[in-house]
Amino acid sequence: MIKLVAIDLDGTLLDSKKEISERNKAALAQAKAAGVKIVICTGRPLAAIGIYLKALNLQDNGDYSITFNGGLVQKNDTGEIIEKSSMSLENVHDLFELATSLNVPLDILSDGLVLQLPTTQEYKSLYSQLNKLLTFEPYEIAQLTIDRIYNKAVVAVDETYLDEQIKQIPASFYERYEIIKTRSNLLEFMPKGITKAYGISLLARDLDIKQEEIMTIGDEENDLPMIEYAGLGVAMDNAVAKVKEMADVITDTNDNDGVAQAIEKFVLEPLRGGN
Question: Sign of the C-alpha dihedral, residues 5, 23, 61, 65?
């Protein structure tokens, strides 16, 4: 029996208009009412998903989200952090040097603030267009202090140029960081071992939920670890090929209520005694 459902946002729960369909809302509401934990699992900070949590009625005591691709596990009602993994200032300097050598823009997320570092004069970061609910401020690398929280680093730039520059990243960086494209024009860096699956595993431990009692739903490469980890990994029909290959089942697209269809079949039907 599924007791926890972890769901990605973009390309999964959200349709092409960045909206949540009524069918998706209804299915998730029924699952929550039945006692199933509905957990948004995203690369975004909590400040950037509040409108979706409100729309889904996921702001009660006992509701949780996994943010920063597994870096934080938080209570939705208070924002309290119950599990945390973040980057060091040394990591930020390391990635600053990499971005400068690759001539790409670099943004560092620090809670709800995005620190925009001067790593290139030629290419403007597209991250503010992708996440309009966040606050962006220019920073010099020398302004950063050891006591600040650094959640993740991102490079948001034209897809064609990004793909060319990715080829130039030294292998040593892949040994030190989780490096994943979360959208066609967005590359993210997290500390090694910090993935959505990691965050889910911590929350499941805290809630005494077994791995086989977890269902995950996603579409992009940063969803791969949680798709593989879960007792039931579900890929959207619009998912990238790697996610489809890893998934246990494939549901419909994000524009055709794929999340609701998976919830109805694998969560609600068993609760009602269906086959």
Answer: positive
CATH of domain 89-190: 3.30.1240.10
Tokens of 122: 């030629």
Nearest to 219 by CA among 178, 164, 258, 171: 258
| Nearest-angstrom CA–CA distance, 189 and 203 | 22
Half-sphere exposure of 203 (CA within 13 A, CB side): 32
**Residue positions annotated with a catalytic role:** 8
Per the DSSP assignment, residues forming a β-bridge with 177 are: 191
Interval 85-107: pLDDT, tens = 889 999 999 999 999 999 999 99
Pairwise CA distance, residues 139 & 114, whole Å: 9
Are 4 and 36 contacting, i.e. CB atoms less than 8 angstroms apart? yes
Task: Give domain limits for the chain.
Answer: 4-85+194-271, 89-190
Cross-strand pairs, 214: 4
What is the β-pairing status of strands 106-110 and 81-84?
Answer: unpaired
d(CA 228, CA 250) in angstroms, rounded, equals: 13
In three-state secondary structure terms, 221 is helix
Task: Look at residue 109 and give its three-state secondary structure.
Answer: strand
Give the percent of the chain with pLDDT over 90. Answer: 87
Average pLDDT of the residues in 188-203: 94
Question: Which CATH architecture does the domain made up of 4-85+194-271 adopt?
Answer: 3-Layer(aba) Sandwich (3.40)
What is d(CA 180, CA 165) in angstroms, rounded to the nearest whole number? 13
* Measured distance CA(201)–CA(77) in Å, rounded: 21
- Write the pLDDT tens digit of every residue in 166-178: 999 999 999 999 9
